[in-house]
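REQUEST ID: PR-0412
SUBMITTED BY: lab tech R.K.
PRIORITY: routine
TASK: structure prediction, single protein chain
INPUT:
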Amino acid sequence: MNPWVLCWTLVFGSVLIWSGIDPKDQLTWFLEVSPGIVGGLILFATYRRFPLTPLLYTLILAHCVILFVGGHYTYAEVPLFDGLFGSDRNNYDKLGHFFQGLVPALIAREILLRRKVLHRGGWLVLFVVSIALAFSAFYELIEWWVALMSDEAADAFLGTQGYVWDTQSDMLMALIGALSAVVFLSRWHDEQFSHLP
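STATUS: complete
OUTPUT:
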């Protein structure tokens, strides 16, 4: 097995197992880590047929780690983020939503370019950012549906912490993440395409 794949899998598996050991709330843990597990399975299934750039694999792993840590503590109670920068609330969820824009934007960019759906330029940027925002909006709908179905897990899963503009600020962070992907990572991303089989 490729050493890089082995290392990726080891980090993914180790953090997932750690997060599942005595989490703050079992249902919230399951809800928070499920997208990472599904993403990991999709990557495993497509690794040989459609390998991604190392940059994208690394950022997907970072996003999964963020999900697993948030699942273990709940997003409102990650210790390092309590009172960070003098805030009244724990803003770990904002880091998660930033990555929720960054990673889907790069996934969309890589698929659209490699499948030759679009060329580099304004239309690519518009579609990449729009796809990332659509993904973020869909996730907010999932959070809402879960909250409606489960009163017990609603507060821990939503993580609003009493902030009335939580949903809007989550989507703003996803937009900032998507724009960051396009502005700061496009050139590096393009360089890695040449090394793909």
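NOTES: The chain has one domain: 3-193.
REVIEWED BY: pending
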